[in-house]
Design a protein that fits this description.
- The complex is a heterodimer of chains A (about 650) and B (about 300).
- Helix content of chain A is about 70%, strand content about 0%.
- In chain A, β3 and β4 form a beta hairpin.
- In chain A, α8 crosses α10, α12 packs across α13 and α14 packs antiparallel against α20.
- The longest helix of chain A is centred in the N-terminal third of the chain and has 36 residues.
- Chain B has two domains: about 130 residues, no CATH class; about 100 residues, Cytochrome Bc1 Complex, Chain D, domain 2, CATH 1.10.760.
- Chain B has about 300 residues and is mainly α.
- Classes of the chains: A mainly alpha (about 650), B mainly alpha (about 300).
- The interface between A and B is large, with 71 and 58 residues.
């Protein structure tokens, strides 16, 4: 009976999942024309060109969508410098730190329930209770993060209202009731989160488990909605929509939200959050693995660390492609903004980005190579590691090679010009596109070899399957190098940009075909014993490197995203005239990023400590025999015992 | 399976130390890179009385690279026509003859103005927005946000684009502009202190002076001991006439004096010849006005 019920529950749950997914797709792709007053681009321009006193009551009423009269169009405020409160320290720095902390913890609390739900589902489908325990432990780690997120969120709102009153007044006027919706969602998120976490053991088996999974799904749906709502504020500031040239609102809430950068940012943040969340909980597992006092505990946390690293790297691999889409949309919206980010004043920080991503990939690969020591089956592949490492290091060095160098006269004379005749060509994008794609492909190769190391394929076509896989690697690598060199150096810019699509397709082909081929080739494969915990201590430090690099990288990308607005609060419609309305240098920004990263690490340690504290029980003290020397202590113990 | 093992000692401090060192390493990389700040345009007082066609086009050149952000795309990287390598009089004539041209311009000046104020009227083949078949320009109108060049600033850029190839400058000088307009913008900023001149022309990028600077050019701190005022003036006007041993010819721009106002040039000559002693600012006599430039 239980089996039948579970079967039907599973069907109901899958239908629920499908409905939720379709609802999201519908929300994401909904035609705004169905909702918005039918103002054509020309009409909007007309409204914009007319001044700011036009009353749109008649137009809105005619649509019948709103019965309340709209106020006259009000432009964005134009504050002068004296309108910004001076609190003695840089207002931007205060907001920078608080906002970044809120975003770090927000990313964590949104990401963890995503992969927790997947792991929980895996536990149900496999019947292995270890998955359920691990999912529960992931939630236990991150539950404190929710409160910390809320604290920093409240602080951020307070700081913004205090330090940027005109800007916040404008944003409140533009988004209005949507911000109340956000607050309601926040309450809903809290309620569902606490029921999901504290109801874990109460809803663990049979139909109750499906209720619990549904709660997890609801939690993620609310969390994702919160994220996309908040994203709409950030993307409105970068590429405003639904307002006229002077910032007066002329569209409805959907038009305001669905700017050209909204969906690219939504996707990019969704994926990046998962990678970030995986990396943070991986650090927890690494810490516990190193501090383990029993073989069993070390094995458990080694497995947990591996799973976390798997989540982080798996989410990280498609991230550059989401980033590519975002940058393409930025260029499409404003070529000037795109060039400011990629080829202008901010171009140098992509060297730092290369260092960070290089660190992530090298740490991720090193962890996989170290993990091969868990099984003797990995000896077949250990010979490949040095070649993979060599490719990764060479590509990393190409990626960090700058194009324009700051040189002294003697250095210019020694070089024979501003660019080195050999290294100069490595400083431009085509070389870097080759490098990053090869790094992704070879990271996938490390992962594939690791996954294969404790298995032996027994299907009849295993040799042919391997040959096909090798051929795909060879063709993809050749294609990436050819496209990069030929189109990058021997054609004009238009083809140069187009060639990167060809390279991305090659990389994705390797990853997708690798997953598919292995899924079929290793079905029913002979397994070689793998011993969790049998891994070097040094490998665990790779799991510390990942969250540090991810955190710094998030801060860096936040700096870019904000800076491309240059001296505008809301690009083109509301100027920033505060004392901090310039783009800070990369050195100053780097110092800020390290400050927030260290603050984040300290708060995360607190979070881990709380998680451990909740599972710590004081040992019942034994009654001590009363002697002359310990009378006081013994009485205390007895009192304690009596109270209990 | 539950056998005890010895945990790694000091895990907390080791993991914290490792994380801190890694974060500091990233900070080091960020601080090793060239440190550039992106300044917002600021309004500055300018001297209309000293305005000439040359200084007006020099202002246009600064706007082209600065507030106008033209050089972001119009460069050698192929994102937009490389205006600096093209003779705009010839190019304008060619485009006006093109059958695709639908605008109202009839000469170089009006074509350039139209291109800046309404770039979509004529998109040069191969430079339209992706997928638009060269019917939509990626260039923003320069008189609107985020660039917001004023009418006089637009004229200054046109003057520069005409003058750079030795063509006749046909745009009016802003001194003829109505008073109300002049209050908003103007062409040339007079730097009235040594520090302002040094900042304005970026002397410290190559020369050490006022206690700091680069080493691409000679140290100017004690140049007054070696060179007379006339020699200093000559070195600014024609920097390649005499090259100090150990330095390369062609590094210092030879059009610097063409951009400097006379008062600025004399202020610097007096200052350098005196061995970096304070000098009084030049008499102003300025018609008060402002210009959009970058700090």
């Amino acid at each position: 009976m239980l089996v039948i019920n579970s079967y039907y529950s599973r069907r109901v749950w899958l239908m629920l999942l499908l409905v939720a997914a379709l609802s999201y797709c519908w929300l994401g792709n909904i035609s705004l024309g169905d909702w918005a007053p039918e103002a054509t681009a020309t009409e909007q321009t007309d409204v914009a060109q007319a001044n700011t006193t036009i009353d749109i009551t008649a137009r809105v009423s005619a649509e019948g969508a709103l019965s309340v009269s709209e106020p006259a169009l009000v432009p964005a405020p134009t504050p002068s410098r004296k309108d910004y409160p001076d609190v003695g320290v840089s207002s931007r720095s205060i907001v920078w730190v608080v906002a970044q902390m809120h975003l770090f913890f927000g990313a964590l609390v949104l990401a963890v329930p995503i992969f927790v739900l997947v792991i929980e589902l895996l536990g149900v489908s496999s019947g292995d209770p270890r998955y359920d325990d691990m999912a529960h432990e992931f939630m236990k780690i991150s539950i404190t993060a929710y409160s910390i997120t809320a604290l920093f969120g409240g602080s951020l709102a307070l700081a913004l209202f205090l330090l940027y009153p005109d800007f916040m007044a404008y944003m409140m006027r533009v988004f209005g009731a949507q911000m109340l919706v956000y607050a309601v969602l926040f309450f809903l998120e809290s309620i569902v989160l606490y029921i999901y976490y504290y109801g874990w053991d109460a809803l663990r088996y049979g139909n109750a488990k499906w209720v619990h999974l549904s709660l997890g799904l609801l939690l993620n749906a609310v969390g994702a909605t919160l994220m996309v709502v908040a994203n709409s504020w950030a993307t409105f500031m970068m590429a405003p929509s639904g307002v006229n040239e002077v910032g007066a609102v002329i569209g409805n809430i959907w038009e305001l939200m669905k700017g050209p950068l909204w969906n690219p940012i939504n996707l990019h943040r969704f994926i990046a959050n998962i990678a970030f969340g995986g990396a943070v909980v991986g650090a927890y597992a690494a810490y516990k693995c190193l501090a383990a006092e029993t073989v069993e505990a070390r094995a458990h946390y080694d497995w947990m660390g591996y799973t976390s690293n798997f989540i982080a790297i798996l989410a990280f691999l498609p991230l550059p492609f989401a980033g590519y889409w975002l940058m393409a949309e930025i260029y499409a919206y404003s070529q000037q903004m795109g060039i400011t980010a990629m080829g202008g004043i901010l171009a140098w920080l992509f060297i730092v980005q290369a260092v960070l991503i290089g660190t992530i990939l090298l740490a991720g690969n090193y962890y996989l190579w170290s993990g091969m020591s868990r099984t003797v089956g990995s000896r077949r592949y250990q010979g490949f590691i040095k070649y993979i490492a060599a490719v990764l290091v060479v590509c990393f060095l190409i990626w960090v090679t700058p194009h324009t160098l700051i040189l002294t006269s003697s250095e210019i004379a020694a070089l024979g010009g501003s660019y080195h005749h050999l290294l100069g060509p490595l400083g431009i994008m085509p070389a870097k596109n080759i490098a990053v794609n090869l790094m992704l492909i070879f990271t996938f190769m490390s992962f594939q070899l690791y996954r294969r190391s404790d298995k032996v394929a027994i299907v009849w076509w295993a040799t042919a399957g391997n040959a096909v896989m090798i051929a795909i690697y060879v063709v993809a690598v050749a294609n990436i190098i050819f496209a990069g060199v030929y189109y990058g150096y021997f054609t004009n810019t238009v083809y140069k940009v187009g060639s990167s699509v060809m390279q991305v397709v090659s990389t994705l082909t390797v990853i997708i075909s690798g997953v598919v081929i292995d899924a079929f080739m290793y079905r029913g494969a002979k397994t070689i014993p793998s011993h969790w915990g049998q891994v070097s201590n040094r490998s665990q430090y790779a799991l510390f490197a990942l969250p540090i690099a991810f955190t710094w990288l998030m801060a860096l990308m936040g700096y870019v995203r904000s800076s491309v607005r240059t001296h505008w609060h809301v690009y083109t419609v509301m100027k920033d005239t505060s004392p901090d309305n310039f783009i800070p240098s990369i050195g100053y920004a780097g110092n800020m990023m390290t400050i927030v990263t260290i603050m984040f690490v300290l708060f995360v340690l607190f979070m881990f400590w709380i998680a451990n504290l909740s599972g710590t029980k004081q040992v019942l003290p034994m009654a001590l025999p009363v002697t002359k020397g310990n009378a006081k202590e013994a009485r205390g113990v007895l009192c304690y015992e009596r109270r209990d | 399976m539950n056998a005890e093992i010895k945990p790694v000692s000091g895990v907390l401090f080791k993991s914290l130390g490792f994380s801190l060192v890694l974060a500091l390493l990233f900070t080091l990389v960020a601080n090793l890179l060239p440190q550039v700040e992106g300044e917002a345009p600021v309004e500055q007082a300018v001297d209309l009385s000293s305005l000439t066609v040359e200084s007006f086009s020099a202002l246009g050149e600064r706007l082209f690279a600065g507030k106008g952000t033209c050089a972001l795309c119009h460069n050698t990287l192929g994102r937009a026509p490389d205006i600096l390598a093209l003779d705009m009089q010839i190019i304008s004539a060619e485009h006006l003859q093109d059958q695709r041209y639908q605008g109202n311009a009839d000469d170089t000046e009006s074509y350039l103005r139209e291109s800046m104020l309404d770039p979509g009227i004529y998109v040069v083949k191969g430079f339209g927005k992706k997928g638009s078949n060269d019917s939509v320009s990626p260039m923003p109108a320069v008189n609107k946000p985020p660039i917001e060049l004023s009418e006089i600033e637009v004229n200054a850029v046109i003057a520069y684009l005409q003058a750079k190839d030795g063509n006749e400058v046909t745009v009016p000088l802003p001194s003829e502009a109505p008073a109300a307009t002049v209050q908003q913008v103007s062409p040339t900023v007079l730097a009235d202190t040594v520090e302002a001149v040094v900042t304005k022309y970026g002397c410290q990028a190559c020369h050490r002076m006022l206690g700091s600077g680069g080493d691409l050019g000679p140290d100017l701190g004690k140049i007054g001991d070696r060179l007379s005022s006339d020699k200093i003036r000559q070195s600014i006007i024609d920097p390649n006439a005499v090259i100090v041993e150990g330095f390369s010819a062609g590094v210092m721009p030879d059009d610097l004096a063409g951009k400097m106002l006379v008062k600025e040039l004399e202020l610097m000559v007096t200052y350098l010849a005196s061995g970096e002693k304070p000098v009084p600012p030049p008499e102003s006599g300025i018609t008060s006005t402002t210009v959009g430039t970058t700090r």
